[in-house]
Amino acid sequence: MIKNYLKLTFRSLWKKKTFVTINVLGLAISIACCIVAYLNYDYDASFDVEHTNKENIYRLNSLRNFQGRITKHGIIPRPLGALAAENVSDFDKVANYINPNEKFRIEDELFNTNIVFTEPSFFEIFTFERAQGQLDITENANIVISDELAQKYFGDEDPLGKVVTQVLDSGVRDYKVAGIFKKKPQNSSFGGVEAFASFENYYLTDPERKKDDWTRWTTTFALLTDNSRIPAIENQLNEYISLQNEAREDFQITNFYLDPLVGMASRASSDDVSGWTWQAMHPMAVIAPAIMAGLLLLLACFNFTNTSIAMAGSRLKEIGLRKVMGGIRLQLIRQFMLESLVLCFISLILGVIIAELLVPAYAQLWEFDLQLVYSENLGLFGFLGGMLVLTGLLAGSYPAFYISKFEPVTILKGTQKFGGTSPFTKVLLTGQLIIALLAIIASISFIQNAKYQKEFDMGYKGDGIIHVAFDNYDEYEVYKNAAVNDGRIISTTGSQDQLFEAYRNDPIRFEDHQEEVDILKVDENYLETMNIRLAEGRNFVKDSETDIKESILVTKELVKRFKWDNPIGKRLVWADTVQLFVVGVIDDVYTRSLWNPLEPMILRMSAKEDYRFLTVNTRPSEVVEVNEYLEAKWKEIFPDRLYTGEYINLEVTSANNVNKNIVTMFTFLGLVATILSVSGLFTLVSLHILKKLKEVAVRKVLGASVSSVVLKLNKQFFIIMLIAIVISSTISYFMIGGLMSSIWAYHVELGAFVFLTSGLVFLLISTLTVGTKVYSAAASNPVNSLRNE
């Protein structure tokens, strides 16, 4: 029986091979996109799952409420970790954790790397796979390094017992390699860690660091077996709030709380938890691809169902004869469902092949370690099996269950009509076009947004700017005197702080109103070098002690928040005692790119001995050459140290790259959706024309013109497209606008241009695709059609 079903299935499919091929390819591409979306989701959901104790690991967090604005921080005062380990008996293990980027040397090679200073209990809390030696940092002289770092610097040599030297301002500190661990993947909170050493070394390498300093913060993890004790533990921790708030009057904490490791990386992104570098993807980076892939799959299934219904008219006699010969409805349902499953299975195989190409391309866009691995991946096989069943049911259920119920008498008499463009197929077609238009509108919207953000006035122009960091003023002065005498350098500035690199965020008060502001200490050349516009008042005066002591420049955002009409001369209070006077107003500077809302900023004049950054301005066309020149000078002056120069526009460049990748992704999805919907429209129109050939011939014999016939054939499809444009424009206004708002604080507003352009583009593509087919039918010789009839 199965053999007979399969024979009938392939015979039926072969008769309509053109339309079947279109359906299979469309479904295969959609399945490939769904596989990418699944792997993207699985990558994010797999953050930190490798730890044996993951359900019992917590990070000690702090919460701050500043004027109704609640902020979460993944760090606590450094002394609190030791107090928690000593006094909170419910904790099984506690480990302080700090992750600076430090300079190291192995033999003659200098490099920067992420090292973690932590307690030996860290390896009892978290699971790290040992590759060689022992993960032992009980001795201060021990260091544990990743297998990648060992391979890079030791090659095939045995790294155990080798010396790794930390390069410090005050000298060097040697460590002995005690063990090698397998580096964590990117979807891990410790994905960038290359080395571990004892937490004591953090204090030994800098005598100014004190264990009882409540003004300094660190990350602290704890292992807790009895989760029911969390409220009691948090109450114990909150007893130390007064010590923290006395030490930092400028940074008052509301309470401490425990943050579970499970989901921690995702919350760091969604809840904007500061103080923790490794975050999972933005929620929309998971949700948006999944929604778009799901819509593409739905579109392909609509295509499949529509085509099956449209082709059903040619199989009515087959159904009638099979019923007359004793066939029962269940057999017909099995036949139609088998046809559907066979096509879906072929599509699934092709989809996996296409996914082999799409996955690396997607991973390259976002620099993910995303791979299509089949071995030991039960989740993927379950997903693929679910896809097969889902697509089979979505695509084949309606034709199978509806067509099989027809009575043989009505079929054989010719009174039973089915196929073509029924109300149901029109609804499905409208759904297809809506999905395609949503994808097109999204593509055009994100292209427009990328252009908007690229041209957005960030308050400074960083295309030709390089900054170099120093440990102290003496280094700054030596380097500046040697390096800045180059004709390609337009201007230079010295500063204690720098955009995107180093600045503080503190509360500042005007009368009874308090605001948190970014504070940068700079010199009198900072505005000129950074291309920041002075809107009102004056700049700092060179060597002015008064300006160093009390003068500030403020951004327009701060003027707006304090509701000043005349800001010049206004007195502000910082740190409760320091009085500052506004001497100038500058344009707003977006220090957090366009992801987050603008924060107000003040510039203070820095004393020369506090300079830690040299910033140079050059022509954008010469910035690479100037950077190479600055690096060469650095190597002459500091031969034993790594060059610290960076392009200041890296943050903006990174944001532009994200925009570019989003545009690429949505353009691809829009293109696929358009091809699927137009191919579905082409199939439906073609089958509709086949059904209408006799009517077309009769109309032409009776004198109808080609144009009137074309209009008659196209009318209902044109109305469907107009309905789809209206519905998709309404949905996308809210959906795409909401998506952009969840990603960026500042983005383009969707306007009529986007919707009109999208509608016209789709109408043009659809008309060109089906117009030839319709015209060919309308212009054909009616004699041929009537002779066939």
From TrEMBL:
<keyword id="KW-0812">Transmembrane</keyword>
<feature type="domain" description="MacB-like periplasmic core">
    <location>
        <begin position="433"/>
        <end position="623"/>
    </location>
</feature>
<dbReference type="GO" id="GO:0005886">
    <property type="term" value="C:plasma membrane"/>
</dbReference>
<feature type="domain" description="ABC3 transporter permease C-terminal">
    <location>
        <begin position="668"/>
        <end position="782"/>
    </location>
</feature>
<feature type="transmembrane region" description="Helical">
    <location>
        <begin position="424"/>
        <end position="447"/>
    </location>
</feature>
<feature type="transmembrane region" description="Helical">
    <location>
        <begin position="717"/>
        <end position="744"/>
    </location>
</feature>
<feature type="domain" description="ABC3 transporter permease C-terminal">
    <location>
        <begin position="291"/>
        <end position="408"/>
    </location>
</feature>
<feature type="transmembrane region" description="Helical">
    <location>
        <begin position="665"/>
        <end position="690"/>
    </location>
</feature>
<dbReference type="Pfam" id="PF02687">
    <property type="entry name" value="FtsX"/>
</dbReference>
<keyword id="KW-1003">Cell membrane</keyword>
<dbReference type="InterPro" id="IPR025857">
    <property type="entry name" value="MacB_PCD"/>
</dbReference>
<feature type="transmembrane region" description="Helical">
    <location>
        <begin position="750"/>
        <end position="770"/>
    </location>
</feature>
<feature type="transmembrane region" description="Helical">
    <location>
        <begin position="379"/>
        <end position="403"/>
    </location>
</feature>
<dbReference type="Pfam" id="PF12704">
    <property type="entry name" value="MacB_PCD"/>
</dbReference>
<keyword id="KW-0472">Membrane</keyword>
<feature type="transmembrane region" description="Helical">
    <location>
        <begin position="291"/>
        <end position="316"/>
    </location>
</feature>
<dbReference type="GO" id="GO:0022857">
    <property type="term" value="F:transmembrane transporter activity"/>
</dbReference>
<keyword id="KW-1133">Transmembrane helix</keyword>
<dbReference type="InterPro" id="IPR050250">
    <property type="entry name" value="Macrolide_Exporter_MacB"/>
</dbReference>
<dbReference type="InterPro" id="IPR003838">
    <property type="entry name" value="ABC3_permease_C"/>
</dbReference>
<protein>
    <submittedName>
        <fullName>ABC transporter permease</fullName>
    </submittedName>
</protein>
<feature type="transmembrane region" description="Helical">
    <location>
        <begin position="20"/>
        <end position="41"/>
    </location>
</feature>
<feature type="domain" description="MacB-like periplasmic core">
    <location>
        <begin position="22"/>
        <end position="239"/>
    </location>
</feature>
<feature type="transmembrane region" description="Helical">
    <location>
        <begin position="336"/>
        <end position="359"/>
    </location>
</feature>
